[in-house]
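Quick check before the chapter quiz. The format below is the same one you will see on the exam, so make sure you can read both the input and the output lines.
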Amino acid sequence: MKKISIKSIISIIASKITIFLTKTILKGGTTFPGKVALKIDRNILSKVSKGYKVVLITGTNGKTTTTSMIYNIIKESGNKVITNNTGANLFPGIVTTFIDNYKFFNKVEDSYAVIEVDEANLKYITEYINPEIITVTNLFRDQLDRYGEVYTTLSKILEGIHLSPNTTLVLNGDESLLGKLELPNKTVFYGFNASIGDNKDIEINADAKFCKFCKSPYEYNHITYNHLGDFYCTGCGFKRAPLEYAVTEILELTPDSSTVKLNDLEVTISQSGAYNIYNGLCAYAVTKEIGINDASIKKSLQNQDSSFGRQEALNIEGKDVKIILVKNPAGYNQALDTLCLNKDPFAAAFLLNDNYADGTDVSWIWDVDFEKLHDLNINEVFVSGIRCYDMAVRLNVAGLNKDNFIIEETFEELTEKIKNSKNDKIYILATYTAMINFRKYLHSKGYIKKLW
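Here is the expected output.
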């Protein structure tokens, strides 16, 4: 048996019992067992994570998908690996993940832990864990009532990084906020050297349009989306850092996948959109840093299953339904760009909630470019969620034909309308708790086999 204190043993056992009960009775529950463990032993994370090579993934958008991609690549390469694949990315949920995988009589050797971390919780994790790698995906306005603006989010992440000076940082070089951080860590950057289209003009509602040093407006050699791209400042000379890992060529974009070159490796990423290319590129950069071979990376990315609610495909009475989580203007606009790749008629459902996990202030929907949907062949527009009428107003102002609107306050009625839709393809764009609750309803009716 491993050398561990009586207090820690009690903490682990109590948490494991709670895990069993929550899985059995509640069919889920990933945060409470960690809270039980921490109540008994505040330092338990440092003990149950011992022996793992830890990779932490944080940032505003793409954490769950990128975490899943990294986990699957490492697993594909034949290495032992654990992850918090339910998206429980707060401190107690991460404790639960390690305790759930803890064995009293087995020593952890040559195993990886790929852990998604909420931006504001990174500092709590790095207080107890010295990770091999921390990767940051991007920084966008998100849940303004909780995080504030992007500089607040950055400061929260930096608090966690400052506790890990020996950790390698894998950062999105196209994210200007992550440039020139002046940290002691080894730092490598990834980004796009190939452009999607010829856009060089930043969106009016972009999140970081001005130089963080001299406040001059950024110029771009190309913009991927929002404020991400090959930026430079004519005021002070600040510019994007050299990229170790890059999208060097974009070969094909479809509603279901993207084929690109990552450095010299041609890869098909089995999820669509520029944001998923970023996710795949980040996973490529991280796994190359830990020594994974190209063959494992390529095979894994082209067979990557969607994480729950992240372009998750399912069938409802013969209808091809895809659920896409949306939580802020930048991510929402990328989801809409995916819809714009469709040439045939389709239906779209917009689910808006205002619970704490969604952000209680829904004014952000007015920064989403719904106007780009105006010319698409969307002949049914379903609207649901707690704030469905706010969403309906926004879509009406965007110019969508209100004669096509179908507003349903309950998921039961929404599902009935989807089942009877005249379209075979339906996209569901939902905020976090709307997505979670809709999936729970679909699971109760047998349309989704695995809840988490």
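If your answer matched, good. The first strand starts at residue 52 and ends at 58.
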